[in-house]
User: Fold this.
Amino acid sequence: MNLLLIRLIIFALLFFAGLKLYRMYREWKLDREELLEGDDQAAAEGHMVRCRYCQVHLPEADALRERGDWFCCSAHRDKYLEEQKSE
Ligand SMILES: [Zn+2]
Assistant:
């Protein structure tokens, strides 16, 4: 009878230890996945640049580059270049 009780206690301890380890593993895995997702998002957004004409910020991938300056669209690029010419 005593032996059965000891076995039961050991079994319960092992069960809770396993549960705790499993929860720790799951949290660790979630943290890792969040970290990886964050990196992917930052890489997708890329470097931010500013339109020389209207000062709006936009990703480098969507911006137009002309003579070392960045522009949000071809209309602003043309307007800026026209203003530069007239000065
Ligand atoms: Zn612009």
Observations:
- The chain has a mean pLDDT of 89.
- The radius of gyration is 30 Å.
- Residues 51, 53-54, 56, 71-72, 76 surround zinc ion (CB under 6 Å).
